[in-house]
């Protein structure tokens, strides 16, 4: 290939101007080309925040790479040709990490892979991308949102750190079984809604109250979790969560759930790793005075300016321009009995916010102006 006749810096500059989907195609040309791409594009590949496996309109898996506030498709997986002989000039065979598959090149999707069995092919594709881009890239899996038509599909992939899943009632066990036999995932986004057999209104709503995940579920061990649910108790994040940052949207919540959460944190019984919690309640408002009275909340003098709590987000979604959690500027706070550390508590109509400081009450009050 003529590219190898140029000096290395020229090769590097030429490859740097290739789109990711074209670099991927070029990496299959030969082992030497693959090595050249990996060595010359190290800095560029390190700037890739994540690679995401998602779904197209027909629920066919797609592989995305982010670019600014959008995503570029570099690969698509689809079913085989119904009449292969008729389309024999439309595709060629390719070895992807030891898996021989039929592929063709597409302007919009880069590489299109044809297969009847998706999971083994996805694993081969993932292993190839892992070798090409490296383990410093965050790998994300997003399941189809069309739970009324398709079953939840989550393949077992190495280094998967983010799971974004929409889940109906019948899929809960599938998700929990996957989590049970997998390493703890960095971030889980969980959208729960009802099945079709309950009618249109129920399908567009959320699950009824029940305990779909046991206390030991790895759902509650993710460093960061985002849950959209009907009842605050489903899943029971406020009871079992062991991670650092939680973002919850629900239709309603019981006051007692919030009171119990604060009191358990204060006692040191639970939530030892928690840094930040935000609950957005879509229907009802949270009675601030009742919650504060029942939890023995303390107050900073209203004539003074309270410290503002904010932290770097563990997980930043594509298109999210805010790297930090929403600021909590509240005169209300609670103290943990076991170590004297403080958490700011803020209730603003339909939003409950809880931010833990790495400071004792004495150190916290020194920041008050």
UniProtKB/TrEMBL annotation:
Signal peptide: none annotated. InterPro entries: F-box_dom. Residues 1-48 form the F-box domain. PANTHER family: F-BOX ASSOCIATED DOMAIN-CONTAINING PROTEIN-RELATED, F-BOX-CONTAINING HYPOTHETICAL PROTEIN C.ELEGANS. This is Protein CBG22207. It comes from Caenorhabditis briggsae.
């Amino acid at each position: 290939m003529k590219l190898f006749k140029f000096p290395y810096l020229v090769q590097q500059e030429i490859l740097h101007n290739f789109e990711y989907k074209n670099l991927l195609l070029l990496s299959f040309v030969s082992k030497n080309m693959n090595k050249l791409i990996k060595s010359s594009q190290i800095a560029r590949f390190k700037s890739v925040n994540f690679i995401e496996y998602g779904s197209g309109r027909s629920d066919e898996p797609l592989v995305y790479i982010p670019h600014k506030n959008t995503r570029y498709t570099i690969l698509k997986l689809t079913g085989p040709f119904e009449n292969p002989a008729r389309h024999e000039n439309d595709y060629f065979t390719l070895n992807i990490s030891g898996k021989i598959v039929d592929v063709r090149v597409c302007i919009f999707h880069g590489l299109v892979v044809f297969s009847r069995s998706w999971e083994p092919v996805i694993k081969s594709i993932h292993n190839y991308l892992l070798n090409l881009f490296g383990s410093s890239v965050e790998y994300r899996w997003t399941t189809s949102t069309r739970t009324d038509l398709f079953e939840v599909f989550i393949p077992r992939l190495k280094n998967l750190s983010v799971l974004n899943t929409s889940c109906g009632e019948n899929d809960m066990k599938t998700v929990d079984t996957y989590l049970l036999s997998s390493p703890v995932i960095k971030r889980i986004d969980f959208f729960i809604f009802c099945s079709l057999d309950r009618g249109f209104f129920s399908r567009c709503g959320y699950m009824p109250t029940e305990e779909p995940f046991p206390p030991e579920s790895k759902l509650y061990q993710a460093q960061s979790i985002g849950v959209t649910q009907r009842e605050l108790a489903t899943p029971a994040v406020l009871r079992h969560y062991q991670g650092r940052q939680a973002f919850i949207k629900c239709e309603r919540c019981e006051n007692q759930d919030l009171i119990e959460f604060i009191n358990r944190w204060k006692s040191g019984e639970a939530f030892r790793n928690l840094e930040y919690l935000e609950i957005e309640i879509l229907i009802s408002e949270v009675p601030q005075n009742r919650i504060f009275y029942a939890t023995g909340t303390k107050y900073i003098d209203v004539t003074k300016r309270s410290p503002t709590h904010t932290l770097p987000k563990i997980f930043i979604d594509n298109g999210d321009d805010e790297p930090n959690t929403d600021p909590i500027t509240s005169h209300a706070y609670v103290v943990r009995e076991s170590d004297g550390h403080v958490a700011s508590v803020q209730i603003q109509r339909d939003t409950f916010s809880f931010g833990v400081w790495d400071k004792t009450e004495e150190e916290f009050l020194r920041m008050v102006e």
